[in-house]
Amino acid sequence: MTKKSILPLLVAFLEESLANEPETPTLTPELKRIANALERIAASLEKLAPVSPTAPLQNGTVKTETKVVTTQQNITNPPKNGAISPATKVATTQQNPAAKPAPILAEPIVLRQYLEKHNITLDKSKTETDPKLERLAVYLGHNYAACEELYNLLKRNLNAPQEAFSYSLKEIVPAHKKIIRQFCHLLKVAGLLEEYSYHGSPDFKVQIKASGTEKKFINGAWLESSVRHEIVRIVEPYGENSKQQFKIWSNVEITCKDGAKRELDVLFALGKKVYCVEAKLKPDKEELEEWVKRVKPLGLENKFLLVVAADKSIEECQKLRQTLGNVAITGLDNLEQTLLELVKTK
Description:
- By secondary structure, the protein is an alpha+beta fold.
- It has three domains: 40 residues; 142 residues, Trna Endonuclease, Chain: A, domain 1, CATH 3.40.1350.10; 87 residues.
- A six-stranded mixed beta sheet has the order 1-5-6-7-8-9, with helices on both faces. It has a three-stranded antiparallel beta sheet with strand order 2-4-3, with helices on one face.
- It is extended and about 125 Å long.
- GO terms for molecular function: nucleic acid binding.
């Protein structure tokens, strides 16, 4: 019961009690003054009382009551030493939402530390390329089988004097026609073609002329860029899901302990493991055997080496793997599966 309701009752009680006294049928002046004072106090408390939830304010808005909710306390047995008993704790779910999971802790081993451990000096690494060239590399990597023939013709026409040449699409399936036209468009956007035109029925051909720029990219650097992109796309999410840090370098130049210089296409780390990747268009067995020898100073077991051979079938890759002593070899079509198998190796 609030003060607002108690005081009028006290006034009424005093009046009724005194009225029932046989010796005092009326209030004395002193009692009247007390009663009037109590009524004034009650009136003042009414003005201070909270506004009703539906009572409109002057500006037409409605003010709601502010309610404080507390749990019942054991007043007769207060807690000792000023401690707050469990019964007096107020729920704070909205003010203090559940804490977020602890962040993934990075593995202590990174690529630079690994190289230092093996007395190898990092001379240079490149992780960024022109976005237009990057887009072209990724597209060609995903559609190499459809674009391979036109791509090889383009490589043969890089050197001056560059000449325009035509490529017929008559015998090509519709899906591959669309892929080839998009490939030519991306070549033009990246500045690698001086001329590009498409001729529909009845010719169904494309006519292109190389600009003579970015020869290194066209001759094979695009594959390194494409492979790097695919490693990031495939391995980085796997690392996040398995709570392992992922680091990658591409176009790495190093100096070994004996002073020998080495160039590595891709070097990446997942957790505590380091992997070396080589990207080649048409490697033969002897070339791959030489590469395995050149990366020996890294101190990596063969199971942590990977060769991406753009022109090799799954069967050819399996044969080369046996010849090279369990070095992983894959074509572009099977790259994702091979990468996942590689990083899961213990």
